[in-house]
Amino acid sequence: xxxxxxxxxxxxxxxxxxxxxxxxxxxxxxxxxxxxxxxxxxxxxxxxxxxxxxxxxxxxxxxxxxxxxxxxxxxxxxxxxxxxxxxxxxxxxxxxxxxxxxxxxxxxxxxxxxxxxxxxxxxxxxxxxxxxxxxxxxxxxxxxxxxxxxxxxxxxx
Length: 157
Ligand code: IDP
Ligand code: MG
Known about the structure:
Layout: E1 4-11, H1 13-17, H2 21-31, E2 34-41, H3 45-51, H4 61-68, E3 73-81, H5 83-91, H6 104-108, E4 117-119, H7 123-133, H8 146-155
Antiparallel strand pairs: 1-3, 1-4, 2-3
């Protein structure tokens, strides 16, 4: 059965610095996903370590921690059917050389050290990662369609 999921997505510092915020956001919105939380921030030491805890001890870990803190990121919560896998599909493989053409990483990145975007790899990871970056009061899951908005407006007085 299909169900709606939410996932954590970040435009990494290279993506922000290169002016790719709009392009990346556009791809998720055009897919039909809802962006239910969004902010730009500098990742703290604590957030970086929590986010990438699974990679601690790997050779690239110290550089990964430096990279994610090297400039502001744009963090977001993205919601939709099968959104965890779907977002990763739009992002492409970790290594841009292996990512399929048309994905964000294939289209905009050359090396995996600077691969523009992050997306959670499971529903459990998503819930863990969302908590690192957002309070529940920062997430706006309710959205109204235009007819609801107009009806509400007309009914207001
Ligand atoms: P993912 O971002 O596609 O989920 P992960 O394996 O979770 O990939 O790795 C997290 C991030 O760490 C990657 O997006 C990439 O920036 C970096 N990374 C992963 N593997 C390597 C590596 O072998 N060398 C350098 N950087 C790596
Ligand atoms: Mg990962």
